[in-house]
Design goal:
It is a single chain. This protein is an alpha/beta fold. It has one domain: Trna Endonuclease, Chain: A, domain 1 (3-Layer(aba) Sandwich). The protein contains three helices and nine strands; from the N terminus they run ββαβββββαββα. The strands form three sheets. The chain has a five-stranded mixed sheet. The chain is globular, with a radius of gyration of 14 Å.
């Protein structure tokens, strides 16, 4: 983990930025606390270790900092994770502004650009402990 933020080990400068913003707003979060196995289309099992975990009541948010160009294997892993794991887990992808439109909707529950970190933190801070989630409208580039 090359980057450090708020005393936490982070995997990238983008993840460090997320961590610092969460810490500044006193949003409790964890790094490396959850581990999942995901069956890939090939049938093999792959390990998924979310970058940042935020627990809000019964809902768990997994924040994944993506880099550009997008890693196809990572995107496939995220899509497989969403197909196979609990709907009470919300997978939030964060990518560079120029790459957001290229993140396939099947690989996230919510997606934000790297310049929207304050919006992400506000969303997490206002998430109530009752488990009700405000809907997030998926967008993306139409498939040809």
């Amino acid at each position: 983990m090359p980057a450090r933020a708020s005393g936490h080990g982070t995997a990238s400068p983008l993840e460090a930025g997320l961590c610092e913003a969460l810490s500044r707003q006193d949003v409790p979060h964890e790094h490396g606390s959850l581990h999942f196995r995901v069956r890939l289309a090939s049938g093999e099992l792959a390990r998924f270790d979310p970058g940042i975990v935020v627990r809000r009541g019964p809902v768990v948010f997994l924040l994944e900092a993506l880099t550009a160009p997008l890693d196809g294997e990572r995107i496939a892993l995220l899509a497989g994770f969403l197909e196979q794991h609990s709907p009470e887990i919300v997978l939030v992808a964060v990518a560079p502004r120029a790459a957001v439109a290229d993140v396939p909707p099947a690989s996230y529950d919510e997606v934000y650009a790297d310049d929207e970190i304050p919006r992400i933190v506000a969303r997490l801070r206002t998430q109530g402990a009752d488990g009700f989630l405000e809907p997030f409208r998926k967008t993306g580039r139409p498939r040809a």
